[in-house]
Amino acid sequence: MAFRTPEKSKRPYGWRARIGLIVPSPNTVAETEFWRMAPEGVTIHTTRMLYRAQEVEDPLTDMEQFLPRVLEELRGLEVDVVAYGCTASALKTPYEETQKGIADELDLPTVTTMGSVLEAFRALGVESIAVGSPYTDATNEAESRFFESQGLTVTVDKGVRLFEGQQRGRHMNLVPKDAVEDLAMSIDSAEADAIFLSCSDMATLGSIERLEDKLGKPVITSAQATFWGALRAAGIDDRLEGCGRLLREH
Asked: What is the span of the domain harbouring residue 78?
């Protein structure tokens, strides 16, 4: 027997929208920052794909085998929109393919980090970017090639690596705020329309507006852009303070 989904207004929480967030299992930042940005009536419900950093050669590709289980969890949660929160995975599997696959399977509006980042650049009129990340040089080079394939100019793509685990896609969430801000300041130049801080597991939310004030240009981050994309896909047009120009103006 099929269950009839109650109206949103009947929900004690999430009566405006439930966002289903998918992240790699080590990611602790995206969920935290989503909750900090969420306006009243919006709730976040996180599922995780197992990320086997030590066990397999290519953990980003490997984790996608766990996506069907994650989608079943989201189906049971009866979320209103799905956000696939991983930036670097788009360098392995095209973000359009991931987005369409999830949307078709769940029949729900779906956004991905990379798709949302590109939409954010378009909304802000950004054509050239300075990219900072906690990634390896090889990942940064692949990311630069991807952005250039999308018609963007990458002025620099620089990584900050403080922990051994970052070599295998772990411990991005340990990069401290001062290191993130130093990275952003170091990559800025007059040629860059905006700063992009890449990786949804690198904490950036408390730094975005401070950096925008110092640099005089937009600062887009993976978690911020993904949340913006999910919120707008859910039909919520609130302008939010404290999260940067993207959520304040678009």
From this structure: 12-113+225-249
